[in-house]
Amino acid sequence: MLSAQKDLSPQWDKGRIGRGREEDPHEGKIWFHGKISKQEAYNLLMTVGQVCSFLVRPSDNTPGDYSLYFRTNENIQRFKICPTSSNQFMMGGRYYNRVLIIVVVT
């Protein structure tokens, strides 16, 4: 879980997805939760998180894709993030250079 911070270095959230890689390039980022289930993500945001808290985890159904979990007042919204062949990330028909930018922009 995380809240966006502006005092981090400009390179802290960079990473590229390599399909089939064992270690995800986002490992170690405060907002990335690579080893939790859908239910654990939901429970974490509902019990510990505050409104507007979010986390990103790998997709269970599509290796290489991600799921963004975002807490609203009363529930959790889930969005699929897909890497592209041009090293960008697509969510909702829009393209982004980094995963974290998706959350900052939306």
Automatic annotation (TrEMBL):
Keywords: SH2 domain. Residues 31-106 form the SH2 domain. The keyword DNA-binding does not apply. Residues 13-26 have a biased composition (Basic and acidic residues). It comes from the Eukaryota. Residues 1-26 are annotated as: Disordered. Signal peptide: none annotated. Pfam families: SH2. This is SH2 domain-containing protein. The lineage of its organism: Eukaryota, Metazoa, Chordata, Craniata, Vertebrata.
